[in-house]
Specification:
6 strands; binds iron/sulfur cluster; 9% strand; six-stranded mixed beta sheet; alpha/beta; Rossmann fold; 46% helix
Length: 334
């Protein structure tokens, strides 16, 4: 029986420590990272230099491709949208922008016609879990290997992760002859300092983004980042906010409603206040269309302005982090 150890790497502290733990175990392993297209250059640098600093294996990149799905969406829109009552100008706008850009995050949003959110966090599976599965795990399982997938998850991070097992058999892929297990070597490590110390034993300093005060580096920014992190991104890396502004413009063109925002609009405190005013004025609570006239005024730029205020608290998270998602189970986003 052939055993293949696969370490998932994201450029964050936990996956880096996991990679170093695999080196310390003295086993042969492959390291793989998923390119979301929404990463800071420092994260690409951290991943691409890991093998040079440690003497471990070079990290292999995988990348989701939505070319076929965008083509399918185009065909669907051409055939159905006008018949479903979507105005002709919106159909024309959507068809004009629905072309693959080669950036996985943007192409995923174009295909879906929206950005991901906490309740519809399709980004982790589509951009990270599935490309690694299709590009690396499935071929090994199809060849009859036993695959041990190393995941950098710590119980101390959340209530959901607290209940995870160090070693877990994954029953997916019953159609393939190999067996898949997840191994979580950091599960019982409590402190972040201890995690950084593992990397330092191998000459790896933390991703510099942590030095700027950011706590999540898995995407830049993540749709789930905290209020103070968003303010930091704008202060030190305003070009990333400009990029998201442009993405909001393009994805909105591909959206049937005509608007889509990077952060879920329901988390926008100003939108919530206006919605409450709408209800107080006797507006129809069942009519989501009632808020559509507001939508064009919301988006990443307005959320950044709010992030710089004291309203909502400095640490107010743009979502409730402790939810059961593939992100929590696989530690794909940190
Ligand atoms: S880091 Fe955040 S935005 Fe990126 S894939 Fe994970 S959940 Fe989605």
């Amino acid at each position: 029986m052939t055993i293949s150890h696969i370490v998932s790497v994201s450029g964050g502290k936990d996956s880096t420590a996991t990679y170093c733990k695999a080196i310390e175990r003295g086993i042969a392993f492959r390291a793989v990272a998923a390119d979301t297209g929404n990463e800071h250059p420092a994260t690409y640098e951290a991943v691409n230099t890991l093998h040079i600093k440690t003497g471990g294996p070079k990290v292999e990149w995988v990348k989701a491709d939505f070319t076929d799905r965008i083509a399918g969406k185009r065909a669907f829109i051409e055939k159905n949208w006008e018949a479903h009552g979507v105005p002709a100008d919106l159909v024309e706008r959507a068809l004009a922008v629905l072309h693959p850009t080669g950036n996985p995050f943007l192409d995923l949003c174009l295909w879906k016609g929206r950005f991901p959110s906490r309740r519809a966090q399709f980004c982790t599976a589509a951009l990270k879990v599935e490309p690694i599965d299709e590009g690396v795990t499935r071929p090994l399982l199809a060849a009859g290997c036993t695959v041990i997938s190393w995941q950098g998850v710590r119980a101390a991070e959340s209530d959901v992760r607290k209940h995870l097992a160090p070693l877990q058999r994954i029953e997916a892929h019953a159609d393939l002859s190999g067996r898949l297990y997840v191994w979580r070597p950091l599960l019982r490590i409590e402190s972040v300092d201890e995690v950084f110390a593992i990397g330092r034993r191998h000459g790896v300093e933390p991703n510099p983004l942590y030095g700027w005060g950011l706590r999540r580096v898995g995407c830049f920014p993540c749709i789930n980042c905290a209020k103070d992190e968003l303010a930091l991104v704008d202060t030190y890396f305003p070009e990333q906010i400009e990029r998201l502004e442009e993405w909001e413009r393009v994805v909105s063109e591909a959206c049937k409603r005509g608007h889509s925002t990077f952060f879920n609009i329901v988390n926008d405190p100003v939108m919530q206040a206006e919605w409450n005013a709408h209800l107080a004025a006797g507006g129809d609570p069942a009519s989501t269309h009632a808020i559509h006239p507001f939508l064009s005024r919301f988006g990443i730029r307005r959320m950044v302005e709010w992030a710089k205020t004291d309203r909502g608290g400095r640490q107010y998270s743009l979502f409730a982090r402790d939810v059961s998602t593939v992100c929590n189970q696989w530690g794909a986003c940190e």
